[in-house]
Each structure stands twice: as structure tokens, then as C-alpha cells.
Amino acid sequence: MHISDGILEPQWVIFWLVLSAVFRALGLRRLNKRMLEARSSLPRISLIGAVVFVISVWHIPVPVTGSSSHPVGTPLAAIVIGPFATVVVSSIALFFQAFVGHGGLTTIGANTFSMGIVGAFSGYLVYRLLRNISPLWFSAGMAGFIGSILTYLTTALELALSLNPGNAMYYWKLYSIGFIPTQLPLALAEFAFTGYAIKYISQTKSEVIDTSQSFDRFTKTALLLMFLIAGVIAASAYIGYMGGGNMAGVDGTVEAGAAPGAVPDGIGVKLMARFGEPLGFALVGITGGLATGYFWNSWRKK
Q1: What mean pLDDT comes out for the span 185-203?
Q2: How many CB atoms within 10 Å of residue 241?
Q3: Cβ neighbours of residue 143 under 8 Å, at least 6 residues apart?
Q4: I need a surface site. Which of 120, 178, 211, 251 has the fewest CB within 10 A?
Q5: Taking residues 273-295, what's their average pLDDT?
Q6: What is the DSSP code (8-state) at residue 228?
Q7: Could you tell me the domains of the chain?
Q8: pTM, 2 dp
Q9: In what helix (H) or strand (E) does residue 286 lie, and over which residues does it extend?
Q10: CB 238 within 8 Å of CB 197
Q11: What's the gap between Cα 271 and its chain centre?
Q12: Cβ(225)–Cβ(193) under 8 Å?
């Protein structure tokens, strides 16, 4: 879901930009309508945008494969604010992520399609199909799981269509095999996180802080499952590092195999090489915060 600059052929760069722009325009239209009807919805949408940015930029090592990958976050966002609004916030998240070496500016269209459109709409559809026949936590969890897997299958398809047009289906399967073993454990973690988050939101509704001191059975089970998955990933990562693995990102690993002659380039790669990840993330966070604050104040005055 983080294809770098310099990987896709120009015609596919344009194709995905145009296709994603259609969904983004529909999303902006719906967002404008929603904010006119209820201005109080803007803080929630902004918060979900921040959640998508943090979740989808978080490198989690998966030692069994000697690599690392990202959760997606857009299925959760789609359930809370709707899939069209999620396209908009994921585009913004991907724009800022490009400046910290995750994805690129020319590939925002392709990355938005895989993460913000396929991930959001597939997760939302699964949630809607299951919510009347299964517990809320399960339908939301399955949305997170399916959305996460389909995001990376779509990324594999985007690479195959651009780099191997003569035999795209074969290479789509090949690139998918490169992505899925690493992404599967994170998809299971996203199942637990999304299921717990949606159930918590549905129970607390507008409450921000839960003042109760007791945990119900579901909460205990969900927390235990989340800690268990996180513990397995952390322990396996330690084993992977001890075994000499560098836990490189699966996006870059598959890209290198798919386009060995291409050199991933872009402003994010240059910034990370110059400043390093900690300073780079700080700069992007400050810039994003200032931009958000500026537009928030402008909107509030209007």
C-alpha cells in the first residue's frame, strides 16, 4: 500500500490518480454536506484521519518472514465515518506519509486506491453484510481483517499490471505470495483491534472516558487477544533480529523483486536519508498539525 516513486509506469501513475480522484471528489462532496448539516462532525473526522495516519505508517516486524509491514486502519475508519470520507482522510494521510519515505507523491493515486478505496469499501461491505447475522465485534473484526488483506492484494495487482503487462495474473499471484505471509499476522491483529474499537465506541457513544472500574468479559478477552498477538509479534521479531534479519519493509522488499532495475526515489526518501526517521516524523507531524490548525481556524471563523 506504499508503492514508492519511480516504480510504476507513467500511464499507470496517471490511471490510478484519475480513478482515485473520482472517489476523492465524491468523498469531499459528502464531507461538505455532512459538515453543513452538523459542524460537530469535523473533529471526529479529523481524529479518524489522525488514526489512519498513525496506524498505516506503523512498521511492525513479522519475524517469521524476516520482514515488516503496516496495519491499514481504513476499514475501521469506514465504519466510523463512512467509506467515501475515508478516501479523503486516507489521501491526506498518504500525502504526509510520502514525506517520511512511506510511498510517494506520484503514487498517491495507486496507494489511495489500494488502502483508501479497496481497504475502506471492502471492509465496510463486510461489516454491513455481517452485522445483522453476527456479533458487532465479529463483523467489525472481519472488516478489519478482509480490508487489510485486500489492500495488499490490490497493491500486488497494481505492481503486476504496471511492471508485467504481458503476464499480469501470474505476477499478481507471485507478488501476493510476497505480501501475504507478512501481512496475515497483522491482519489478525487488525481483526482484534477493529472489533474491540467498534464495540467500545458503540457502548460509550459520545463518552470519551469510561469511568467504570470493571471490565466485561468481551473487553478482557479482546485485550488478552491483542496483548497475545502483540507479544507473539514482538517475540518473533526478537528471534528474527537475533537470526540476522533486518526486518525490512515488505513493500520495499516486493518492489525490489518486482522491479530490480528501478531505484525508488522521491522527496520522502531524500528527507529520511538527510534527517533520519525521528526528525523526519517530527517535521511531518509539526507541519501536519500546523496545517490542520490553520484550516480548522479558518473554517471555524466562517
Answers
A1: 84
A2: 14
A3: 75, 76, 78, 79, 123, 124, 126, 127, 130, 194
A4: 211
A5: 55
A6: H
A7: 10-60+67-204+216-296 (1.10.1760.20)
A8: 0.75
A9: helix 277-301
A10: no
A11: 22
A12: no
